[in-house]
Design brief:
By secondary structure, this protein is mainly alpha-helical. The protein has helices at about 5-25, 35-65, 70-105. It is elongated and about 60 Å long.
Length: about 110
């Protein structure tokens, strides 16, 4: 059961696409209010980060309770996947910081 790992991957990918489009001024978010866009991005980044931490914890527990070598191999793959999603969450935080600095430098606030 790797529900949190998969949920974290989906939320992190959606957040990455939205943040990258916002930084590059493609703006896939259809709100004209910059404050609402910033709040949406911040909430998504924090949510993806927290869920990815829970996914890492879940994969660690699954590996500790694996009985067969096949289960152990699958749990190790899930743990690598969970850490890569965690890396994507950290990249999302960096992109959010870039987005906020871009808004502040152009005087949108």
């Amino acid at each position: 059961m790797a529900k949190f790992i998969y949920a974290s991957a989906v939320i992190s990918c959606i957040t990455y696409i939205l943040l990258l489009s916002s930084v590059l001024n493609i703006m896939l978010v259809f709100s004209s209010d910059k404050l609402m866009n910033t709040l949406l991005m911040s909430i998504l980044v924090v949510l993806s980060f927290m869920i990815s931490l829970i996914g890492i914890r879940e994969s660690w527990y699954e590996l500790a309770t694996a009985y067969t070598p096949h289960e152990e191999f699958l749990c190790r793959v899930k743990r690598v996947f969970a850490f890569s999603v965690f890396g994507l969450s950290i990249l999302n935080m960096i992109l959010l910081l870039m987005y906020l600095l871009t808004l502040l430098s152009y005087g949108y606030y």
